[in-house]
What we know:
The chain contains five helices and ten strands.
Amino acid sequence: MSGRRATALAAAVLLLGAGVAGCAQSQDYAVPGDVCGVEVQAALLKPLLPPGDSFKQGDTRERGGDITSCGMEVDKRRELTFQASLVAADLDPLQVKSHSLLGAGNPRKADIGTDARIADGGAMAYSACTYKGEPRRYVVEIWVQKAPTDVDKRREDLARFIAAYLPAAQKAAGCTS
């Protein structure tokens, strides 16, 4: 190999190494204190978000008044999707979404709200409540786009987050216990 080629190769390796090392191993963005307009502790949300340089929370969308959703992007890639909905009191939202929960990987029952499931890449919980004088169920879903490197930790982080978020979102929606 010529001296010039060796130097060029060494420079390319250094640049590649610098690119990988600088490849956002930390969260260089501010973690928000709300999700879909509902105040949350940033410390509970932070472990669910990957390292990166930029963050954007999508606008909260309301569909039919009973469903709200929003997404979060890190470095212009969707990382988290949130959905909250009011459903009939006799509807089992975990059964309705069982296919999605299975797709998220190994859903397990959790002691959150009235009922909940925590999966490898998502979580869903609901609480029975009263909305405008009618019995309803308030449902919260969180879907993570990337497979976790530490599944047990991700599950713990999802459980901690949804346990705090469910009652706050339910209260914000005006669905009382």
